[in-house]
């Protein structure tokens, strides 16, 4: 009776080993399938973005361009209608490096 149980355990272990081997061998195919699916999804997203970009560019090019509204002159109570250019004063920072 003990031999039959041992024989039964041996058959059970062989079946488990075969199942594990099957999973181990098929795991490479599973990973490859996942990689292929991810590549296909990324490719589809890029194609959709490219089509969307083309459509938006065509729509922008076909729209009539509105003229820029004229910029009103700055309201300055001291100016008597004479245009004076704005002056900008630039003061450079101290660029000398301190030596030790």
Automatic annotation (TrEMBL):
Q: Give residue spans, biased composition: Pro residues.
A: 67-76
Region annotated Disordered, chain positions: 60-100
According to its UniProt entry, the protein's GO biological process terms are: peripheral nervous system myelin formation; regulation of myelination
- Cite the GO molecular-function annotations of the record: structural constituent of myelin sheath
Task: List keywords of the entry alphabetically.
Answer: Membrane, Transmembrane, Transmembrane helix
Quote the biased-composition stretches of kind Polar residues, using this chain's numbering.
Answer: 81-100
What top-level branch of life does the organism fall under? Answer: Eukaryota
Q: Which GO terms describe its cellular component?
A: paranode region of axon; plasma membrane; Schmidt-Lanterman incisure
TM region(s), chain numbering:
29-49
InterPro entries the record matches: NCMAP
PANTHER family given in the database record: NONCOMPACT MYELIN-ASSOCIATED PROTEIN
Name of the protein in its database record: Noncompact myelin-associated protein
Organism expressing this protein natively: Mesocricetus auratus
């Amino acid at each position: 009776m003990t031999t039959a149980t041992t024989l039964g355990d041996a058959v059970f272990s062989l079946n488990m080993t075969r199942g594990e081997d099957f999973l181990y061998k098929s795991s490479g195919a599973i990973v490859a399938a996942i990689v292929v699916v991810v590549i296909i999804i990324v490719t589809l997203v890029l194609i959709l973005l490219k089509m969307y970009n083309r459509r938006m560019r065509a729509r922008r090019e076909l729209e009539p361009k509105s003229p820029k509204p004229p910029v009103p002159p700055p309201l300055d109570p001291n100016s008597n209608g004479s245009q004076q250019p704005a002056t900008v004063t630039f003061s450079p920072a101290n660029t000398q490096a301190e030596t030790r």
